[in-house]
Amino acid sequence: MLQPKKAPRMAKNDDALIHISDIPLAVALLSRLPVRVAETSRGAKAAWAYPLVGLIVGGLSALMGLLALGLGLPTLLVALLSLSMLVVLTGAMHEDGLADTADGLWGGWDRAARLQIMKDSHIGSYGVIALFLVQSARWGALWVLYDTNVAHAIAALIASSILSRATMPALMAILPHARADGLSRNVGSVSTATAGLGAALAATLALLLLGGSCFQAIVWAILVTVVIGAIARTKIGGQTGDILGATQQIAEVAVLLSLVP
């Protein structure tokens, strides 16, 4: 007599809200840092660790800024080197998402055209303008922060990197996928528990770094998430990897500007 097959047992870490393998998985996804990923099945469950990637990337960029200050470079160049490190460590993936989002959302006449433009590797005028404005704002904010108070500048740099990456799992939990393929679709759907954990982690780290100043920064990060989420839902019906990247970039700028004295 044939025995019924038992359902395959799911690994314990597949059900866990948090697992240590989530951190290298998040780092590998959101940066160019060389990490060994032993577990890839958790996908969207690792999204809670995105703020930790911000902590790592922001921390290394802050170290670059401190090194530049130690060499006696002017704060203009210190800010530029810190910003350059942020871009290099992530392979400019979020900047690319910003450009694609600007081109697609404002260059297409309907949902299908917008998604097609966002998938195109060529950059258009809207993308160029968006990159120029956002990167100029990041540079200018860091310049003023370094020129005013180095300790506050370091805290603001790291906190903005953390809080801006908490916006991504939030949008992944709130909005449906706008397309049937792409990076965001491959990662999967994020649960509200995972997104909430990421937000709580980011808020806690921001509080430790900024003290009471963190509250205005958190408000701006939330505002950016809500506004871009609403625009994305209206124009393309959901979120994509490009939308997530654009949200990260704009949230980072908003947080930095909110912390400029």
Automatic annotation (TrEMBL):
Requisite cofactors: Mg(2+)
A molecular function (GO) term: adenosylcobinamide-GDP ribazoletransferase activity
Keyword Electron transport belongs to the record: no
Key words of the record: Cell membrane, Cobalamin biosynthesis, Magnesium, Membrane, Transferase, Transmembrane, Transmembrane helix
Lipid bilayer topology: Multi-pass membrane protein
First-listed, main subcellular location of the protein, grouped into a coarse class: membrane
Family statement: Belongs to the CobS family.
NCBIfam families in UniProt: cobS (TIGR00317)
Protein name: Adenosylcobinamide-GDP ribazoletransferase
Organism, as annotated: Roseovarius litorisediminis
Organism classification: Bacteria, Pseudomonadati, Pseudomonadota, Alphaproteobacteria, Rhodobacterales
Gene name of this polypeptide: cobS_2
